[in-house]
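Z., the sequence and structure:
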Amino acid sequence: MTYSTQGRDFFAVPAEQVLDTFQVSTDSGLSEQEARKRLQEAGPNVFRRVKSKSAWRIFLDQFKSMVIIVLVIAGAVAFTFQHIAEGLAIVAVLLVNAGIAFVTEWRAVRSMEALRDMGRDTIRIRREEREIELDAGQLVPGDIVIFEGGDLVPADIRLVESNGLQVNESALTGESVPVSKGTEPVSADTVLADRSCMIYRGTTLTSGSGLGVVIATGMDTELGRISELAEQAEKEATPLQRRLDQLGRRLAWITIGIAICIAVVGLLGGQEPARMIETAIALGVAAIPEGLPIVATLALARGMVIMARRNALINRLPAVETLGATQVIFTDKTGTLTENQMTLRRVITSAGSHTLHEDKDRHKETADGDPWLHRILEIGVLCNNAFIQDEDGDRTAEDEQGDPTETALLRAGLAFGIKREELLRDNPEEREVPFDSQTMMMATIHRTANGLEAAVKGAPSRVLQASEVIVSESSSNDVPMRDKERAQWQEKADELAGQGLRVLAMAEKSVQDVSEDPYTGLRFVGLVGLYDPPRSGVKQSIDECATAGIKVVMVTGDQPATAAAIARQTGIMGKEDDGVVLGSEIQSPEHMSAQERKRIVKASVFARVSPEQKLRLISLMQEEGMTVAMTGDGVNDAPALKKADIGVAMGKRGTDAAKQVADMVLRDDTFSSIVAAVRHGRIIFGNIRKSVMFMLCTNVAEVLVVAVAAAGGGLLSLPLPLHPLQILYLNVVTDVFPAIALSMGRGEPDIMNRKPRPQNEPVLTRGHWSAIGGWSLLVGTCVLLALAMALHWLGLAQEQAVTVSFLTLAFSKLWFVFNLRSPGSRLLNNDIVANPAIAGSIVVCTLLLLAAVYMPGLSQVLRTAPVGKGGWALLLGMSLVPFMFGQALRSIQSSGSKSDKEIKNMR
């Protein structure tokens, strides 16, 4: 037989049938000979190892960008034509950019190692009628495994025996509290989170004990399937990567066209062939903003530092910008939107309904007004096997041990002065009947001054069914429990559940013997409702997302009622929403009708969602053209974190597998940190866009002045206004400093009041290209006029005149930075002036330009010469023309913006 669970619903058949299928008995287990045979057939109980990406492959991948490829060609051409300085500068840019990207990706490609290492431990099994300890990697289908609380489940196991077994499945299913396990089969269409007779690899047993048969190992386990999904999930290129590649391809064609046109026009104009070909090559290089890769990389790296200060650690550089383009955030509930700590919130007794508060004085008032409130809390503290350390002091999560529901009951008891140790001193425990998935109840029997008393808690429907009487409102005379009373109390329980509370019923009874059944003839005391409260500030963050045009969607493994309640409290779900969508309703995008797709895209809350369904959700949203961020913490989240445009893992409670596969890790696990990261992402993209605008405006101006001079040199009696080395000096040296300064801007205050950029929006839109054309034409005209006036008006020598045009262009670049302030901003109060790095970059560039003219050696290489006072007056005056025109334009835009606001206010 083939030992694979593919298509086998072992959870839907009795345990005896499963044992027969694997030809094994619980008493003897497998023989060693049979185990070796199955190990050879099924393979070791480990995950398949995928060949790791080599360091050389990672390094070479950094050169796949079109801009980088053009720069590589430009460098090769520069060396070919003996332009050593230009070639070395380009090589330096390439190496720095590739080096930073290499280091960050080196860490990211190790994403699956944590998944492969999970579950390596020893486990107790039964073979040949003996109990032995075996390395979990040697388990085979059919092995009989013995386990108890605290064990890590090493394989997928069908339960044969269960003694109060509870399992923490949060890493696999997202369920926020431990779930109870039994042995009875469930229906074949039961989702993974509700298969109560199964335990799965990667989960942890929190209490109880049991015995089961291994039904799947290695890659056949649910965890193995998740590992395979994560391997197969293709990581889409980030929006910035796609946009820079689009820009690079466009610039590559522009470069080729310019080089050909200039060469042809120059040759037809009578220029020397060798000089024209050399100039055409230099102009081809000039059309590419050599500083763009390093500026983008440094801008993203700075974003990493800023976000790290806000508790967001970035694993991949492009993820910084991707956050700014986010249109949908898929977030889990427990710990991200909520505090991840159960709290007793509501108590209902015959005397009334109570909402508990932090104020202890109010507790006293509440207790004084209800004679049964104190007793219901005593039952919760007695019928309990959790523990709280340092009961009188401040407590942390590490000070609490046990089921979160039970620790919540202990905390509530302490708030009313009920201490478990003191209570047990007066009422020693004689017996505990563990919670069982069949009875859905738990009981403890205590010896009291009046004899033996049983304290019972459990599912309201089961406790109500087992109760014969209800405590009266104010007297000791009990009221009979009839069908009418049961229906009324069940309605109250359903109302609490509808508020997102986990509801328990409390009861008690007197018993004659410790061995007596505690679940008959109960005296019903009341109901308690517990919940995991939303984090402070979450609602404000979600409101901020709505203002920013970002849709927040809850995707959780919890029950629909709990998810809906938290979604309403945090503002994710509004009154107009259609309700909660179950994971079972999420089909593959290709199998959905248009109406189904519309409903899924519109939904705000998804509950009981499996790993495959998370992937389907992300794929559907990406097909709709949306940039998707996905939060997660468990192993089950790893494939979705990898598939999403931006995967966000939880740093505190997240598994290593989730953290290593994610693009970003939140150190504080808070949703507000995601929103802060989105804001920084938007700022960074805006800054990169300004840097690109700056570089291209001046680069295109260089192309225009040389093209005009080359085409009409004879007619205008003008030499080439820029030598190739001067062009590269401007591009590689003086361009980079202002561009880096622009990338360090703080952004506009209203940046989170704007809608996200469309996924297909390029770095530069048509409007930006039009602006680049207009500014380049203005700057180029000023440079050519400065050259002509230097020659024909000031009578400067050709080398001096070319120096004037060189410096006119250079200073035009520096002043042009101030034209990039936001439309509507004020002259002396804008994002450019407020950026101290801008002033610093202008000072540095001014010194570099003076060195280009007056430093011996460098001036000879660049072929510059001093231009005198007249030359300086001319070049500074002409370089300020674009600046003054730009400021006038911004002032007009500012007035228009103000008028729009005034009109809006009048309305």
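The chain is about 50% helix and 15% strand. The chain has four domains: 10-49+115-232, 239-311+676-750+767-900, 314-339+535-669, 343-531.

Let me know what you think.
H.
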